[in-house]
């Protein structure tokens, strides 16, 4: 009985591994055409959505994932690839507020406050992407994050019928464990979308970033 049970367990683990790797590959392939690394190549969108993460790593020091997303957002703004930056992240505790931290660093870089919009309810990637569309009325936007995260974010956007693209900022080295975790995050995202039909934790009233009368390609930049 024990040997038989072990055989079933091994078979289940093999099936799970095949599903996880296949889904991971499919999501990467499906979203590849909408990911850019070249500033010159990426088309303009009025709104850039910066996906939040912790500014600091455990033990001290700046989180390279955070730093690269902020630098990418700054560059895209000054290169007139986006007109507004929607900062979406977690503010679960008074002492931890991702959107506020991002805004502070963007303001230090000279980005005008009028070009910055905060989304305090971006608890998960799904929340950030769906809220950008349903709360902030952005039908076309540029996501700003690392490539592996771009793929999952775009997968969510495509499922929701949102016209999004992603600018992939540099990914730090030695992310093997993060990449493994990402595989399972994609599996959970698939379940959230196709099986559980999950919605963001909070939605709320419509708060358009771009006025209906304002053309999407209007630049608001001033140095």
TrEMBL record:
One of its GO terms (cellular component) is plasma membrane. It comes from the Bacteria. This is SanA protein. It comes from Orbus hercynius. Participates in the barrier function of the cell envelope. Residues 49-176 form the DUF218 domain. Pfam families: DUF218. Keywords: Cell inner membrane, Cell membrane, Membrane, Transmembrane, Transmembrane helix.
């Amino acid at each position: 009985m024990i040997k038989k049970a072990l055989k079933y367990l091994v078979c289940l683990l093999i099936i799970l591994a095949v599903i996880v790797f296949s889904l991971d590959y499919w999501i990467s392939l499906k979203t590849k055409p909408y990911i850019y690394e070249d500033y010159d190549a990426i088309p303009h969108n009025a709104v850039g959505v910066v996906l939040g993460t912790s500014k600091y790593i455990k033990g001290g020091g700046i989180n390279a994932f955070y730093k690269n997303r902020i630098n990418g957002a700054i560059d895209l703004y000054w290169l007139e690839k986006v007109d507004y930056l929607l900062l979406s992240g977690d503010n679960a505790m008074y002492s931890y507020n991702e959107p506020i931290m991002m805004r502070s660093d963007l303001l230090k870089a000279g980005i005008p406050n009028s070009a910055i919009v905060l989304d305090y309810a971006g608890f998960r990637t799904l929340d950030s992407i769906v809220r950008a569309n349903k709360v902030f009325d952005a039908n076309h936007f540029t996501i700003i994050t690392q490539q592996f995260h771009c793929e999952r974010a775009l997968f969510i956007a495509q499922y929701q019928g949102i016209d999004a693209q992603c600018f992939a900022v540099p990914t730090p080295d030695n992310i093997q464990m993060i990449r493994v975790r990402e595989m399972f995050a994609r599996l959970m995202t698939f379940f959230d979308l196709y099986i559980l039909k999950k919605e963001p934790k909070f939605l709320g009233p419509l708060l358009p970033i771009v006025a209906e009368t304002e053309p999407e390609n209007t630049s608001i930049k001033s140095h």
